[in-house]
Specification:
Layout lengths: L12 H14 L6 H11 L5 H8 L4 H7 L1 H22 L1
Helix pairs in contact: 3-4
Length: 91
């Protein structure tokens, strides 16, 4: 249980609501807290999946791979493009 300073339980949706308020105050477009998890994974490309899994609180790296397959797929496509350029440059 998470509580405020007075010991009153905080409803889990409070975090999302507060995040939305902060974005609005800052004049930023609306994203969700979950979107920020996807962004985190994208920004730490190249970090071993077991480290990412631990950071995101996943007990098993396969959960991370399953949940973020789209992001990982995008990274694989980018890696393939880089590899193709390197190969083309050496021919």
């Amino acid at each position: 249980m998470i509580a405020d300073q007075a010991g009153t339980p905080v409803h889990p949706e409070w975090y999302s609501d507060e995040f939305r308020r902060l974005l609005r105050r800052a004049g930023l477009r609306r994203i969700t807290l979950h979107d920020s998890r996807h962004t985190t994974l994208t920004l730490i490309a190249g970090v071993p999946v077991h480290v990412v899994a631990a950071r995101l609180g996943h007990a098993d790296p396969s959960i991370t791979l399953r949940m973020y397959a789209r992001v990982i797929s995008d990274q694989l496509t980018e890696a393939a493009d880089i590899f193709a350029r390197v190969v083309a440059a050496t021919i």
